[in-house]
Amino acid sequence: MKILVVVDSIDIEDSSGSKANVALIQNLKKEGFETLVYHYSRKEIHLEGITCVAIKEIKFSFMYILSRTQRGISKLFKININKQVESLFGFSFTFFNDVNSIKKTLEKATHFQPDWVLTLSYASSFRPHKALLALPQWHSKWLAYVHDPYPMHSYPRPYDWVEPGHQYKRDFFWQITEKSKYVVYPSELLAQWMRGYYYNQTGKEIIIPHQIFEEDKNNSISTLPDFFNVNDFNILHAGSMMDARNPIALVNAFELFLNQYPEAKNHAKLLFIGKPSSFDSFIKEKQMTVSQIFLSDDYMPFQQVQAMQQATTVNVILEAIGPISPFLPGKFSHCIESQKPILLLGPYYSESKRLLGEEYPYWSEVNNTERIQSLIIELYQNWLIDKNQIMDRSDLKWYLSPNYLRKVIKELKF
Q1: Which SUPFAM superfamilies match (predicted)?
Q2: What's the whole-number mean pLDDT along residues 234-255?
Q3: What is each CA distance from 24 to 13, 80, 204, 396, in whole angstroms?
């Protein structure tokens, strides 16, 4: 079976979405699918055993001139006119030029006759999806992967807001759910959530969760940064907190835990690894009295972060304070792969919680300091008994595995 993958980026260092995209592509190859990848990473990237074609940006077009003119105006006059542009046209001039670049390259891809065409994106770009809409010859074999709600108004609280060109964006996404053969989601809850906005996708939804890629286990202890001591009781949050993922209760709970178990101050650590966030000032202030808290200066290379995830005592999944979290975090598969206990902080209705199960012991609402403190104490006491705690979830390892991926793809009807 041949699969053509059209993807925004396969640069694993630019976002969690790109990491998830690459793991999915690698597992398609691993399961024997003949895979050809067209990517818009803006650089040459090679994935072992997979043919990857870097899509070139069109630099001689009216849309390209408009996009660069807009950038020049913004830089020269210190004003951003993108809001006005998107209100008028739905998308930026750069978006349109990127889509045209992808479409033009795909029109030349006549040597490969795929059984399925899989579009992958990240954040809120969906450039490959927009390009596929203009190629009707592939609609009957189009697998449109939707990683997050779209547009922003479709997000659950507290992420939702009405962005410029909202109706254009909504109409665009309606076309995706209308024209594609299947709409692919990484999460059951996300599929249900989006059905409330796009009822025309009913009967088209399939679930392909973020993948475990087994070869990632080659990350060794030598990859670990100097500040990470494998002999400590380490509680690790890896990834961006953004403005909605509030760590304040976690930090306060950790401080209360240390006050209750002062001997733990010699070997307990709470580590935040990721890009700067709006909570950095709070964490830095807390560090002045709680030296056991570590905050990275910025993003760290994926290989190092994954090595820490595999060597830590506890991995933290921190979700937004809100009624529901239908997303499957990109790092969920990394956490399951590590086989370390997960401290899940999120709402009751959460895809992570649904997968871990109703009886999963280490879950709390994000802002329940007392509950989080009690969970840290329980995890610490378990660690004192056994320094190599294993969370054996063979069910989830199967669900996130290439074998399950193959099963889903093979069951699709042409």
Answers
A1: UDP-Glycosyltransferase/glycogen phosphorylase (SSF53756)
A2: 94
A3: 16, 36, 20, 16
